[in-house]
Amino acid sequence: MNRVLLIDTNLSSAPIYDYLIGSGYEVYVVGGVPTDYLAKKAKNYINLDYSKIHLIRELIADLHINFIVPGCNDLSYLISAQLNEEVGFFGIETLKNTQIINNKKEFRAFADHIGLPVPKTFSRQSVGGNWPLIVKPVDAFSGRGVTVIHESDQDNLDDYINHAKSFSKSEKYIIEEYVEGQLYSHSAFINHGKITTDFIVEEHGTANPFVVDTSKLDYNFPQEMLAHIRLSIETMAAKLTLVDGLIHTQFIKKGDKYWLIEVTRRCPGDLYSQLIEFSTSFHYVESYVSPFINRISSLTSYQNKKSLVMRHTISQPEDGFFGSIQFNHAVIIEKLFPISLAGDYVKSSPFGRIGILFLKENTQKSFDDCYSRTLTRALYQIHS
User: Fold this and answer.
1) Is residue 352 classed as helix, strand or coil in its secondary structure?
2) What is the pLDDT of residues 136-149, one digit of tens each?
């Protein structure tokens, strides 16, 4: 039996684990947080900080691992790329490409060089009168260390830079123009540099403007803009000679313009895979995992249904004790994944989460109403 090492123990990687187990693999999961979902569920859990790559090398050799699968965070993919450079595994991007894609500063420079639409960047010395701006760590995620700076705040720019650096493992930051508009994600699977299947998801942050917590499939996204986005992704794939598999991109749309914000090759978090599967019946997890285990995914049962499903990560804008959730309106719950227990002290978004909720409606009107109430945080109340 082939052995697989899944590098992540978070709840979002549970569908990956279940697929591998269901496909007959002997699966080991590694992570340094024993309270994580897979740390508690998986038969072969290894309590190990996978950022210590020399220990992961020894683990792979000792267990005679055949395949490695990155989970749903940037570090798991980066570690996989480093291991791939040394040993050689299926489906993993090169370390150089991984750094270009994941590092916000490197990606902006690369995208600008090949003519892809990205926000303009500035050095500390060249900020001038270009307001508003946004300061970010180059290698953090989920809105950590991000600040929007308006002209009235310019005297505090150095403080915001230091704030961004404090969330960066490399202590590096990026300053760029603050692009306003609607946030989307484009999740695509490529084969020989060409997109075979893709999805557009509308995204919002209700508890924190820089953390996506509410999303839905956009079945009516403008086809002309989608064609341009696809061309951008395929251009990137050709320039970098990307390996087959998932390429997930966040972008901002305003009118007839769009800007690429972030790109990754790992599976998105907060059970994004399940939003796609519940909404369309597409086997997102199988398609993500297949390149890593040297298999061709089977999509014969994919019927491209268009169900009205939304994903919402239940979180709160301020720290506080969690007791219960009171729904103010009737809802159809497709699935609920609890993360916190009653009595837990839950930190504000993005540092704490209460649960991941999938809601379904049968008519467009009821779905729009439910979605609107969620965006205004009127659908439910959190009690301590």
Assistant:
1) coil
2) 998 877 778 898 88
